[in-house]
Amino acid sequence: MFFLLGPTGAGKSELAVEAALRCGAEIVGADAFQVYDGLDVLTAKPGPELRAKVPHHLIGEIPLGGKFDAARYRQLALERVREIEARGRRALVVGGTGLYARALARGLSKLPEADPALRSELDQLTLGQLREKYAALDPAGFERIDRDNRRRLVRAVEVSLLAGVPYSSLRADWSGAPSDSSPLPGVVIEREREDLYRRIDARVRRMFVQGVVAEVQAAPDAGPTASQAIGYAEIKALLRGELSEPECIAAIQQRTRRYAKRQLTWLRAENTFFSINLTNKLQSEAAEEIARHITAGGPEEGV
Fold it and tell me: Is the pLDDT of residue 274 over 50?
């Protein structure tokens, strides 16, 4: 099992397919929103032409209204990795959701169960109040969490209060690491900030040309996780007449850039992985380098 991780907009999908073709790998998604069926344009799923070249797993497989979390992802991803390696092929885990990647690589610490009374109390707070409360309880975790994701903020505050320690300290207590404690092989894809932000802005504009507004309008109601996809709330506001299209595009661009910055902070903390800066490297060269690392590891080093 080999990890290819990076922020949104960095160019992971194309690079992963090129690397996989060079070493006989299959791709296992590690994206909290691409796992859902539907909203292909909004979540920037790998297109049909890429998926035709290399088998992809955990892309578009969960009903849009369904619940999904890191524990469920770990269970399904482990099953797919084992199936792939049983066929004598390699598993390339690709995505930008650091929590999912770490859950698969290291397992999850046991967290307190939800408390209905506390959850009801937290649900009454505004987004600003939740941010303020979590920042006071867990300053380190507040720097990394998606501050626009109300569901995650509620859970982070809830766990911090119930456990009596910062949520981030529990999430750092990964269990289920490989028994030999050997580093897991992987790469973090990066780009220079101006390059990455330029790509993000262009991709958001392209989404609107590709019909993302009609896609969201026609989709069934998203569940509590899928509805957190960047752009979903903004496009719903556009459809209600609360935002103009230029305002909607600008809001999605800004939120995506902020998310990419948090992703990089999270991913760089995984210091067992090497990094490749695609701003300064041809994709073909990067794919060849990644394929060499994957081939050197081999299926026997997977989970």
Answer: yes
DSSP string computed for 98-128: HHHHHHHHH-----PPP-HHHHHHHHTS-HH
246, 60 contact by CB (below 8 A): no
Answer yes or no: is pLDDT of 86 > 60: yes
Prediction pTM value: 0.80
Q: Which two tokens stand for residue 22?
A: 């060079």
Q: Token digits for 3? A: 């990890």
Report the distance separating Cα 217 and Cα 303, nearest Å. Answer: 40
pLDDT 10s digits, 191-202: 999 999 999 999
State how far the Cα of 154 lies from the Cα of 130, in Å rounded to an integer: 7
Contacts of 117 (CB under 8 A, 6+ apart): none
CA distances to 104, 207, 288 from 176, in Å = 9, 39, 31
Banded model confidence at residue 112, pLDDT cuts 50, 70, 90: confident
Checking if the pLDDT of 173 tops 60, the result is no
Q: Phi, psi (5° rounding) for residue 99?
A: -60, -40
Closest CA to 212 of 40, 49, 13, 9: 40
User: Which pair of tokens denotes residue 129?
Assistant: 């109040």
End-to-end C-alpha distance for the chain, whole angstroms: 7
pLDDT of residue 92: 97
Cβ atoms within 10 Å of 197's Cβ, excluding its own: 18
* Distance, CA of 259 to CA of 299 (rounded, Å): 33
Domain boundaries in the chain?
2-108+174-301, 116-171
Check whether 170 has a pLDDT greater than 80: no
CATH 3.40.50.300 correct for 2-108+174-301: yes
